[in-house]
User: Fold this.
Amino acid sequence: MKKIFLILISYILFTFNTYLQSSENNKQFKIGLLAPFSGEYSQLGQSMLFSLQLALEEIGDKRIIIVPRDSGINDKSKLNNSIKEIIDENVKVIIGPIVREDLKEVYKYKGITFISPSNIKPGIQNNVISMGVSLESQLKTIKKFIDREKKTKTVILYPENIYSDLIEEKLNKLNIKPYKILKYSPDPKILTGEIEKLTSYSQRKRNLENRKKILEKKDDFSSKKELELLEQKYTLGNVNFDSIIIIDFGNSLKSVLASLVFTDVNPDKVLFTTVNQWFDKSIFYENSVKTLYYPSINLKNFEKFNKKYFDNFKRNPNEISILIYDALGLAYYVWKKNSEIKSTKDFIIKGKIKGKIGSFSFDQGEIIQSLDMYKIENKKFKKL
Assistant:
């Protein structure tokens, strides 16, 4: 009788555990997507959705359900309606939104965790996790590189715009004390004058003219040879700094580089660095600077992702796409680990996490990325 009872209990426990396991295996992980599917940024929204499709394919767990909705861009009414629609689908985690103003709007949804590709303030703030490549991680990587190259007189340049305060905040936090700082005008005409002043261009040009006048009065071979060499120069004398950090992007960055070369700053003597440019090949065709250094994510992963994306969708991804891919991977990892996601606290993970962008970690609520330094030379990106 006792033996039969033990067998019965064992059977009940086995059946109960099997039921729990089956129930757990059938549990769905619903995750929302807020993306601009309409308007002028609709292609960006489509790119975000395609990235999630690639991530779903690689994860291979059919329990993941994506609930996409149109967020628009800076459209509060559309954004809030879409969030409410997603929440009605019993979703607790949402990827997006992508712009700064929209992020402020989602703080009021206390029970929902938002994962954004924004890099304005990467890390955990209230109910938002921002996964963008942080300026802090970039500046740390650049500073380490400049120190390794034994440069001691660094000039930091950045434009005067809505992000100036954020840049200054990060520079102060990291205790970066440059030799000089130039907050320049976004107007290219004004910018050139500011760069000329920074580089003492007028004085160095006068130095050249004065030296040429002296040599023109001489008739010896060495003077003639020196004069011949000076005819190929624009200025005489070096600038009083040995390295540059330009915190800018796109055409504005190219304008700064062109102005520095115009004022005869020699890249062989001055280290030119900038922030993450996402392996933008248009820089290859800028004749302004021969060599440029910047920190970025893992190049091999980036190229593999871009190829897979193109092979599947016959178009190139947006830079945000790879971050969206990693956002789903991170959310899935936390959900699988905890069997649910209650709040952003579940995302405070010890140690490094590997994603397509490379490895990253959480430090007191902030995301710190492990970035590599790259050199742009001879129309190639070279990892240092």
